[in-house]
Amino acid sequence: MKFFLDTANLDEIKEGISWGCVDGLTTNPTLISKEMKGDGDFKSLVGEILRIVPGPVSLEVTSTEHEGMIQEAKKLKKLGENVVIKIPTTIEGLKALKELKKMNIDTNATLVFSVNQALMVAKAGATYVSPFVGRLDDISEDGMSLIEDIKTVYDNYSIETKIIVASIRHPVHVRDAALIGADIATMPFDVMKKLINHPKTDEGLKRFLEDWEKIDKKKLRF
Ligand code: E4P
């Protein structure tokens, strides 16, 4: 399973990439807006992100009708080869997905909350589908069962649209997504950081280092 970071924060992106675990990135208007509070402008922020991320980077359109989405997509695509256009899952979004497929522009259908939406965006030509598990959990639904269902349906019909498990809130979401066989998990930096932690690792390392200190250092020359 590929790991994407779900952030527009350059420090988080650089740190995650240094771990060798970042295959791509997703953003949304909320995440971009958080990083635009200082002096920086959109073009230089996104330009830097596209330069350092070793894989696809999803940038979301904000138009609500398909002509506007396509115009935005064309402009965003000029910013870098690895740009993927994030399109909202609406009727207008379907029209844009269909047109962008014809233009060979990769797309990510976002805000997906049902199997039928996942089927529709795949038929319209989406490269990626982003079902939001955390936001379903928030309203007492089982987000991960949606991933299971989409995976089953896509496998039933050999659909090539890749499943990005989105709105991930904790490490169990990542583990469950991997067990189901989702293609990608996109997660906040804090969740990625938690994946490597284990108290038994810390305890074991502490004991190894304490025992090492007991050896007469003269005996350790080599
Ligand atoms: C995915 O592409 C979205 O940017 C993201 O996962 C949304 O997560 P949230 O529900 O935590 O805002």
Task: Describe the protein.
This protein is α/β, with parallel strands linked by helices. It has one domain: Aldolase class I (TIM Barrel, Alpha-Beta Barrel), CATH 3.20.20. The protein has helices at 10-18, 29-35, 42-52, 66-77, 91-102, 115-124, 133-138, 143-156, 171-180, 189-196, 199-213; strands at 2-6, 24-26, 57-60, 83-88, 107-112, 128-131, 162-165, 184-187. The termini are far apart. The mean pLDDT is 97. Bound molecules: erythose-4-phosphate. The site of erythose-4-phosphate (E4P) has 11 residues, from helix 7.
**CATH class membership:** Alpha Beta
Q: What value does the Rg take, in angstroms?
A: 21 Å
Q: Tally the helices.
A: 11
Molecules bound to protein: erythose-4-phosphate
**Span from first to last CA?**
42 Å
Q: Could you describe the largest sheet, including whether it forms a barrel? A: 8 strands, parallel, barrel
- H/E series, N to C? EHEHHEHEHEHEHHEHEHH
Indicate the CATH topology.
TIM Barrel
Strand content: 15-25%
- Which class of secondary structure composition applies to the elements? alpha/beta
Which geometry do the CA atoms define? globular
| CATH level-two architecture | Alpha-Beta Barrel
Number of folding domains?
1
The name of the CATH superfamily reads Aldolase class I
Find the count of extended strands (DSSP E, 2+ residues).
8
Please give the share of residues in helix: 40-55%
Strand order of the largest sheet: 1-2-3-4-5-6-7-8
Mean pLDDT: 97
Keywords:
222 residues; TIM Barrel; 8-stranded parallel β-barrel; binds erythose-4-phosphate
